[in-house]
């Protein structure tokens, strides 16, 4: 007999966000028998669960998928070289496709089985944003889309930058700048390729094959899977600022060149030991210091932020991985030019009902 399923989401129609609740309810459709237990086998692991008082099995995949997709603490090990390739594979870090097996053991000794094919993305959505903004893309399994919150890309020339694209067909994809009519086809066999516009240099970049105007460019990415339109805002950057990258809520990377801010060093004494064992005339120090610990911090303000830009920056506040660029702009960047940083806890104003443009203080 078949299994009866009730889903909070349809587990077969599209892509699921692994870091949100993904609850499944099911039971045997065989009448008049007792269900003893159920086993769920997913990504090589088997979990045993038992029915509730109404005979339903419940399982939330969030607790296991959020761990399985974090294979190396979200490390970005790609060290791009534009002269070698524009495209690099991000598939194993961004997604997981699998067939989940369900078994129900009945008191009669019969084992009922079923399966579901599922694709998980290393992604999440908070509840308010989900209600307001999703779906900004069609999350159908057999399509193409950019791994960003909305179809806007800000590209600072002279700094390393990339976008991640979900391309179901894994075939080559074409990028066309509709603002000047120039297009180029990139060779790839990846389901989630990262397309690097720049590795930091300006004498060699994606603009060797697809030039971008300063300001906004209307761009289309397409393959046999489908197409996605988005805006690329090219910004002629300066060296005076703090360049951050962070993992966004879709499992890709966002970049932002913040205005130059204040740099501070905070110190904290690690403690001391009593050394007060001599007479006053012979005492130099009544205690022995265990040393001092210091930490660096940067504070800065980004002004005149539009609502769309603020939606991009919102991901920075929730991101599990944030890096600060310490390399030299307009030269080739290396992995060692990025250092991991964290945001200080606090309250951040993300909208102002009295102003059309916003200000973000970090």
What report would you give on this structure?
This protein has 362 residues and is mainly beta. 8% of the residues lie in helices and 45% in strands. It has helices at residues 62-68, 91-94, 127-133, 307-318; strands at residues 3-7, 15-17, 23-28, 35-42, 45-49, 57-60, 87-89, 95-106, 111-121, 144-146, 152-157, 160-167, 173-177, 182-186, 193-199, 215-223, 226-236, 241-247, 253-259, 262-269, 272-274, 287-289, 292-299, 301-305, 322-325, 338-341, 358-361. A five-stranded mixed sheet has the order 2-9-8-4-5. It has a five-stranded mixed sheet with strand order 11-17-16-13-14, with no helix packed on it. Strand 16 (215-223) and strand 17 form a beta hairpin. The protein is flat and about 90 Å long. The model has no long low-confidence stretch (mean pLDDT 83).
Output the structural class. mainly beta
Q: Mean pLDDT, nearest integer?
A: 83
- Give, in spatial order, the strands making up the sheet with the most strands: 2-9-8-4-5
Termini separation (Å)? 58 Å
Low-pLDDT stretches are: none
Q: Which of globular, elongated, flat, extended, rod-shaped describes the shape?
A: flat
Strand content: over 45%
Oligomerization category of the chains in this entry? single chain
Major beta sheet summary:
5 strands, mixed
Outline of the structure:
The protein has 362 residues and is mainly β.
């Amino acid at each position: 007999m078949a299994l009866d399923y009730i889903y909070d989401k349809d587990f077969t129609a599209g892509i699921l966000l692994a870091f949100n609740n993904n609850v499944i309810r099911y039971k045997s459709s065989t009448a008049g028998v007792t269900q003893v237990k159920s086993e769920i086998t997913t990504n090589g692991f088997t979990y045993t669960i038992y029915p509730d008082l109404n005979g339903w099995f419940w399982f939330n995949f969030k607790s296991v998928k959020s761990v399985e997709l974090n294979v190396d603490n979200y490390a970005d090990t790609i060290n791009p070289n534009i002269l070698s390739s524009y495209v690099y594979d991000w598939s194993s870090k961004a997604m997981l496709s699998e067939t989940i097996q369900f078994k129900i053991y009945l008191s009669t000794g019969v084992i009922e089985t079923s399966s579901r094919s599922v694709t998980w993305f290393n992604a999440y959505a908070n509840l308010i944003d989900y209600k307001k903004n999703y779906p900004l893309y069609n999350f159908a399994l057999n399509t193409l889309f950019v791994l960003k919150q909305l179809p806007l890309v800000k590209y600072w020339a002279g700094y390393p930058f990339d976008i991640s694209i979900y391309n179901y067909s894994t075939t080559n994809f074409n990028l066309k700048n509709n603002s000047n009519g120039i297009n180029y086809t990139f060779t790839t066999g990846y389901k989630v390729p990262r397309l690097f516009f720049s590795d930091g240099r300006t004498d060699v970049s994606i603009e060797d094959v697809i030039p971008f105007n300063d300001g906004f460019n209307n761009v289309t990415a397409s393959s046999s899977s489908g197409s996605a339109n988005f805006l690329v805002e090219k910004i002629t950057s300066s060296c005076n600022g703090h360049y951050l990258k962070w993992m966004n809520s879709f499992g890709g990377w966002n970049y932002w060149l913040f205005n130059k801010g204040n740099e501070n060093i905070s110190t904290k004494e690690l403690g001391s030991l009593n050394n007060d064992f001599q007479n006053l005339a012979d005492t130099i120090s009544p205690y022995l210091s265990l040393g001092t610990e210091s930490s660096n911090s940067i504070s800065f303000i980004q002004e005149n932020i539009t609502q769309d830009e603020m939606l991009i920056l919102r991901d920075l506040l929730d991101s599990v991985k944030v890096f600060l660029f310490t390399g030299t702009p307009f030269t080739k960047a290396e992995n060692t030019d990025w250092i991991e940083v964290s945001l200080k806890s606090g309250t951040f104003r993300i909208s102002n009902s009295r102003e059309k443009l916003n200000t973000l203080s970090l």
